[in-house]
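2024-03-11 09:14:02 DEBUG pipeline.ingest accepted 1 chain
2024-03-11 09:14:02 DEBUG pipeline.ingest length=174
2024-03-11 09:14:03 DEBUG pipeline.predict start
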Amino acid sequence: MRARMLAATTLAALALPATAAAHVEIVSTEVGEGALYTVTTPNENTAQDMTGLRLTVPDGLEVSAIADASGFTAEIVRDQSGRAVALSWQGGSLKPEHLGLFSFAGHLDAGVDRVKLTGTQSFADGSSMRWTPEIESMHSHGESDTPARALSGAALAVGVLSLSLTLRRRSPAT
């Protein structure tokens, strides 16, 4: 019960910034020479499950890996030269009023401070919703936002851990 309450509280807090930022937020965490990008997307469609998420990869953003998301098949879509042009998570099911977390690794090219992605959520009835979140270089900020980024990264990690514990407890024993 305690883990479930912690998960609900943390995820509710994480959903607030996502709602304010065109219903989707991309948070980056510096990892070595690159970054781990976490896409937080609530399913605000009250009648349909979200069944897919696709992000275009604009020039200036290099993607090196994609993370699986529970129930979804993850794929990096590449052009003929091998450059990642889209990220796709398909075939899953995210219930209305639930929050999905989708991650990938990469970096912004040298000299690029920010890029806009185009994201498309698809739903069980065949409808879709588009949005355009931005990724901003972590190095283009002053040091004043470092504590806020660290706190948001920690909150995201706690939320993912809490959700994982809650789902594990709800899973039937094997």
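2024-03-11 09:14:41 DEBUG pipeline.report DSSP finds two helices and eleven strands in the chain.
2024-03-11 09:14:41 DEBUG pipeline.predict end
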